[in-house]
């Protein structure tokens, strides 16, 4: 879990992206439209952050890239259907589903 958070933070700090250019991004106030317009790097950073954020605290430090991509794709599709909704509202339905 800590390794994933460290990786996401490193990518956010080192990788240039529209969303990463801001010092602070409040995902509860970020609309799906803003998320989808954040560029490939911004989308990937948010996907990785959400994957770690919604992971079980006691989970093994394993990144399942297929699951990360599948959940991220579902998030992008749901955001396309509801561009004015905030990303966390959409993410909760996807990432909390077991």
Summarize the structure.
This protein is mostly helical and about 100 residues long.
Secondary-structure topology with pairs:
Elements: H1 2-14, H2 18-21, H3 32-36, H4 39-53, H5 65-81, H6 87-95
Helix pairs in contact: 1-4, 4-5, 5-6
Provide key terms for this protein.
6 helices; mainly alpha; 10k-s Protein, Hypothetical Protein A, Chain A
Describe what you observe in this structure.
This protein has 98 residues and is an all-alpha fold. The protein has one domain (2-95): HNS-dependent expression A (10k-s Protein, Hypothetical Protein A, Chain A, Orthogonal Bundle). Helices cover 64% and strands 0% of the residues. It contains six helices and no strands. It has helices spanning 2-14, 18-21, 32-36, 39-53, 65-81, 87-95. Helix 5 crosses helix 6. The radius of gyration is 13 Å and the shape is globular. The mean pLDDT is 82.
Helix content: 55-70%
CATH architecture title? Orthogonal Bundle
Topology-level CATH name: 10k-s Protein, Hypothetical Protein A, Chain A
Count of individual beta strands: 0
> Could you spell the SSE succession in H and E letters?
HHHHHH
Largest sheet: none
In whole angstroms, how far apart are the ends? 18 Å
Which whole number gives the mean pLDDT?
Answer: 82
